[in-house]
Design a protein that fits this description.
Strand content: 25-35%
CATH class of the largest domain: Alpha Beta
Number of domains: 2
CATH superfamily of the largest domain: Class I glutamine amidotransferase (GATase) domain
Largest sheet: 10 strands, mixed
Number of helices: 10
Structural class: alpha/beta
Number of strands: 19
Distance between the termini: 58 Å
Helix content: 10-25%
């Protein structure tokens, strides 16, 4: 089925004319690229992509439809989708709907038949930027002018994706975990449940007193979208959580918030890390792991307070990928050990966390 003509305009002024393959309309977001070859249903439903337009660098998406039982949340969180070629079939035994149906159902605008390699080069050259996709307005100058009205620098995206009420998972489990939800993926919950944890998921703004009243054996600080400095209301809570000296697991945004809360600084990467092929070096073992990642910000190693050490580095740009503490029971990584999608090389991170309870 041929889609309506669509246009993508970048903040640099460059434009790309293609064809719509999702919901018809107009959307503005921060444009980023993902280098994964598979796993688009999980990528689209990852809450960490809130407010972003995803460019898939792999040239074909949609060819195995959408398995709604393997999603990372209940809906699509990104603002828009860009692809070289979209396939409307669903060649998978467990596919419940096509990608087109999934995008339309979630009111997500998509554009394909554009030069995604050129778009990725543009992002790599100039950095992450604002972009707009439209199936309505075709005037590049009008669309470029609309971009000027938007400023994403101070958005608290966590409030968009966190749960609004606490809920419990596996209430008959053993050790009690309090999970602060900054945009948690289902994959993280699935991995934790393998260790029979009893998990209570709390909204991001939950007070320390409410968390402490649950009397958890451990605390998890989840992944999530955006700039960690835009959620200052969690910093005092995290400082007091760390003072309890109970086992803490921080993943992606979680590790950044731990660092900020204890006095370190974070900074924005030029174009972020997004995909399932990022090499990470483990200092303690000397081994290299291929990891799944999705973040725009990194910890400034020079600002880490006394007692912290970097135990994982990214081999592409030497950014911080994991930290540990001299005596606090902490497991904190920038990458996604649950993958979803991606390699399972670092699922042992959950085992390391579990051993902290011994």
């Amino acid at each position: 089925m041929k889609g309506k003509e669509a246009i993508l305009v970048l903040e640099t002024g460059h434009s790309f004319i293609g064809e719509s393959f999702g919901y018809e309309g107009e959307v503005v977001g921060e444009i980023v690229f993902n280098t994964g070859m598979v796993g688009y249903p999980q990528t689209l439903t990852d809450p960490s992509y809130a407010n972003q337009i995803i460019v898939f660098s792999y040239p074909l998406i949609g060819n195995y439809g959408v398995d709604t039982e393997r999603l990372e949340s209940s809906k699509i969180h990104c603002s828009g989708v860009v692809a070289r070629e979209f396939n409307d079939y669903k060649f998978h035994w467990n596919s419940k709907k096509s990608l087109r149906e999934f995008l339309i159902e979630n009111k997500i605008v998509g554009i394909h038949k554009v030069d995604t390699r050129a778009i990725v080069r543009e992002i790599r050259k100039f950095g992450t930027m604002k972009a707009i996709i439209s199936t309505k307005e075709k005037d590049v100058f009008v669309l470029a002018k609309k971009l000027l009205k938007y400023d994403f620098n101070y958005l608290d995206l966590v409030r968009r994706v966190t749960t609004t009420v606490p809920y419990e998972v596996n209430p008959e489990g053993d050790k009690k975990l309090a999970l602060l939800d900054f945009g948690v993926k289902m994959g993280i919950l699935r991995e934790l449940l393998k260790y029979n944890f009893r998990i209570k998921v709390f909204p991001a703004w939950t007070s320390f007193e409410d968390i402490k009243s649950y009397n958890p054996d451990g605390i998890v600080l989840s992944n999530g979208p955006g700039d960690p400095s835009n959620v200052p209301y969690v910093q005092e809570t995290i400082r007091r959580i760390m003072a309890l000296e109970k086992p803490v697991l921080g993943i992606c945004l979680g590790i950044q918030l731990i660092a900020l809360s204890l006095g370190a600084k974070t900074y924005k990467l030029k174009f972020g890390h997004r995909g399932a092929n990022h090499p990470v070096y483990h200092v303690d073992s000397g081994r290299t792991y291929i990891t799944s990642q999705n973040h725009s910000y990194a910890i400034d190693e020079r600002t880490l307070p006394k007692g912290f050490e970097v135990n994982y580095y990214n081999l592409n740009d030497h950014t911080v990928e994991g930290i540990k503490h001299n005596f606090l029971p902490l497991v904190a990584v920038q990458f996604h050990p649950e993958a979803s999608p991606g390699p399972w090389d670092t699922k042992f991170i959950f085992e390391e966390y579990y051993r902290l309870f011994d």
